[in-house]
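Extended Data, panel c. Modelled sequence:
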Amino acid sequence: MFSRSLSFRSLLLPLLSLAAFAPSFASAQQIAAWGSNDFGQSTVPSGMGVVTTMAAGTQHGLALKANGTVRAWGRNSEGQCDVPAGLIEVVRIAAGGYFSFALKSNNTAVGWGDNTYGQLDVPTGIGSISRIGAGFYHTVALKSDGSVAAWGRNTEGQCNVPAGLTNVTGVSGGGLYSLALKANGTVVAWGDNTYGQTSVPAGLNGVVQISAGTFHASALKSDGTVVVWGNNEDGQGNVPAGLNNVFTLGAGGAHMLALQLGNAVVAWGNNDMGQGTVPTGLPPTVDISAGDQFNLALLPGGVELDRKLVNSGDIVTGTVILADAPGAGGATFTLAAEDPSIHVPATVFVPAGANTATFPVTTDLSFHGIGTTHIYASQGGITYSTEFKMIDETASLAISQSSFVGGSTSKPALTLSLGYVPASDLKLKLESDNAAVTLPATITVPAGQSSVRFFPAHAIVPTTLAVQVTVRDMGGFSVASNTLNLRPLTATLTFVPTEVIGGMPSRGFVQLNAAVSGPLTIPLTNGDATKLGIPASFQIGKGDRAGYFPVSTALITCRWRRP
């Protein structure tokens, strides 16, 4: 759990061609993770590049990149994921309870994160360090001369290195105890022994690797078998019957991992968060690390994107990775995308001597339902995958004037706004559910812009009418809508003057409730043609909201009787 085991990739790679299958497990780049993810410890960051080893702490993970830099992820409550700026030339890493350590090529150690008990305070004058292990609150280091130093919390004597301990080849920090592996294949333990974790089994020898869990300890023997002792409440001490050909192991919080020749990972012990269930389709693995309730596995290759979240319609960069550069002739990966709206080349070529090659990933802009998806890269009979999430485009339709008189000069503006700026021109369909409102057939949001404005045409309506305007993608999916409320055109009629002497002219005056968008012919009906003369119709001009028409009157005669 708390110290990084040695990599045996050179022993494993010749066997990779033996495994060929179509995995259902989606790894992230070169590192696969499973188990607890409450702090993101099983969500490996994108853009990792070539990774040479990794380490799982209590609730955070570390990766050592081929360029000698470190990436960290997961819980960061104590700054354990805040890799110091400028940290380079790292050759080994260790993840502890809430802190991290890196060993540099100059044999010096750098720590960051929780320092409550001085676990980051490398002793002055310690000299050259060749290995480092991180416990829950303490650090243990193997010096180049084969001696051991430890510092940090010492409540259980976990930092009291036994006198005369020399010829050590490996160290590991557990919960409140420490382990050391000697050159003669024996193990020395000190610190807390509540569960017998420092009571090394009698006669244990031929050990080539050690790993300390929280309250249990483990050893890998030269014959490929595993021995576990200490706490066994969750079955972590029950090594599966017949387990052999193991070449590396990892002790977690209350579970165990073992990696066999042939690239198979075996897990046992606590499985509360799924850490004891090896994922179906896990690609061939070259290294493992067990955290508190999660695991990390290093793969010989991988595929990744430069982002974990991709806006649909964007173009991103994919990278295929080989931990060991191919020889003459290079290596060709076959590529595939899970979703048909995501497009990748058929293949990508990694040149001889190179560890990576990039390829473009283009995506169709979508407003609905792609979600989490995968890209697959296959090489040498092994299929790797990377998981990422497509972010759907969103749209809203705003109206500058939601209610107006139909057929009037009112010019309501409709503005379509997108959630993010599209990388290329976006063409959309427009639709009205009533002929009283007409729209362009399509609109285009130019690349690099997030909105476009358009103006509907509208006609006179006899009654108040609600018309829905809908914007659809070219496949017909509704992306935004809003409602226009059209009011009817109404008029009032008066005469100027309102009283005349028979035979004298007058004028009719029509006042509308809105200016009209085009010439409007209004029919007139005469209630008594014997007294009034009016035209059959008259016209109100474009942009006007009132008009006059002539009125003639008949001469009215009266008979007078002389009294």
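Residues 491-553 form one domain. This feature is highlighted in the accompanying rendering.
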